[in-house]
Amino acid sequence: MNYLVFGGEGFIGKHLIKYLTEELGISSSVVYSFDIREKSDFGNYHKIDVRKPIDFHIADIQNSVIFNLAAVHTTPGHPDFEYFETNIRGAENICCFAEKYNIHRIVFTSSIAPYGASEDEKYEESLPTPNTPYGISKLVAEHIFRTWQAKESNTRKLSIVRPGVVFGLGEGGNFTRLYEAQKRGFFFYPGRKDTLKASVYVKDVVRILYSTMDENASNEVSLYNLTYFPPPSIETICCTIAEVTQVSKPRILVPAGLLKVAAAVIYYTGLTIGKKFTGIHPDRVKKLMVSTNINGEKLEGSIHQLRFSLKDALEDWFNDCDKKGLF
């Protein structure tokens, strides 16, 4: 079996390759990392741009599984067309590649973004109503992969996972910024304390990506939300970080209106003077005050259920960071 990881140099991709080669003991000679990035610490790396037609051949290529993690995802952060160009065109090119070489297994890492911003609880069966270019592009990509599977539904297997916010070693995103702010005593609750934040630990994500690979005995499409059940509130996350790392719990709540105005002033002042304030954007601040109320009950009731609780995951993450001298 060959393991073809598109987006193998990204945060989740690196963890997946490490899981395959180190935890499962799969030879790196059959694990391939495909990415647009120039440099890689992984020996079996090949530069591929999924926005362009893919032509890569190896021995016994039809006996392969494709993991598609390649995406433009930071929101906000990119011009609208970049989400569509990479996420949609990439899905099309990967499907063409799979068809050309008769590859029958694809695992696609989508997102909870196709559900759209809403306080309503969302299930796998909920109607997707994406309201960002990223969410729209991911939903279209899902349908491109579904179309590929439906063309030969008796032989092709497709797994789609929709992770919430993924955290872990090397993340450098929401959870990292949250911890750093709490450590410095700068974090305050934006608008409310009960905002739900669907989230999941990266080590659970990569294990589930692998375990769903062979789930479809009937060759149907499997779909899972990847998040804690129930999703934790921002207060629960902050208090758990404080418990695990001994930093202070946040105690200040800033009214939503004041926070929006402050973020807008700082952001547009930065544009005027040519200075970028990392992490400060009106749209990002707005996201902080909207729940991602994603239901993970289907995952919890399956054989793929999470192994790390929120507390266990944070402890494991910080142990990993401590070993590398981070934080």
Task: Describe what you observe in this structure.
With 327 residues, the chain is α/β, with parallel strands linked by helices. The protein has a domain at 2-170 and 200-226: Rossmann fold (3-Layer(aba) Sandwich). It contains 10 helices and 13 strands. The chain has helices spanning 11-23, 80-100, 133-151, 174-184, 202-211, 234-245, 256-273, 282-288, 297-300, 310-323; strands at 2-6, 31-35, 45-47, 64-68, 105-109, 118-122, 157-163, 165-167, 189-190, 199-201, 221-226, 253-254, 292-294. The chain has a 7-stranded parallel sheet, with helices on both faces. The longest helix is centred in the first third of the chain and has 21 residues, at 80-100. The mean pLDDT is 90.
Main attributes?
327 residues; alpha/beta; two-stranded parallel ribbon; Rossmann fold
Reconstruct the topology from this structure:
Blueprint: E1 2-6, H1 11-23, E2 31-35, E3 45-47, E4 64-68, H2 80-100, E5 105-109, E6 118-122, H3 133-151, E7 157-163, E8 165-167, H4 174-184, E9 189-190, E10 199-201, H5 202-211, E11 221-226, H6 234-245, E12 253-254, H7 256-273, H8 282-288, E13 292-294, H9 297-300, H10 310-323
Parallel strand pairs: 1-2, 1-4, 2-3, 4-5, 5-7, 6-13, 7-11, 8-10, 9-12
